[in-house]
């Protein structure tokens, strides 16, 4: 998220109205609902997690134990089980 000066992007009339509610503080203006990217799309984390989860499932199929995978990926046993279960469901 990038900060912008209100004086650079808003007309003076709008700034005066906003100053009635908040003055000299940071104000977050959310994107319109139809312009929001789904979670993790912009940062690429969604894609990274999908790749990681595929790796975990492949290693599990090749014989890695849940405990080994949890130590390797710094995840709880419960998280590893969830990833494996989700993958099994998607592959079925």
UniProtKB/TrEMBL annotation:
Gene3D superfamilies, per the entry: Homeodomain-like
InterPro entries: c-mor_Regulatory_Protein (IPR052411), Homeodomain-like_sf (IPR009057), YraL-like (IPR049739)
SUPFAM superfamilies: Homeodomain-like
Coiled coil stretches, renumbered: none
NCBIfam families referenced in this protein's UniProt entry, alphabetically: CD3324_fam
Name of the molecule in the record: Mor transcription activator family protein
Originating organism: Clostridium collagenovorans DSM 3089
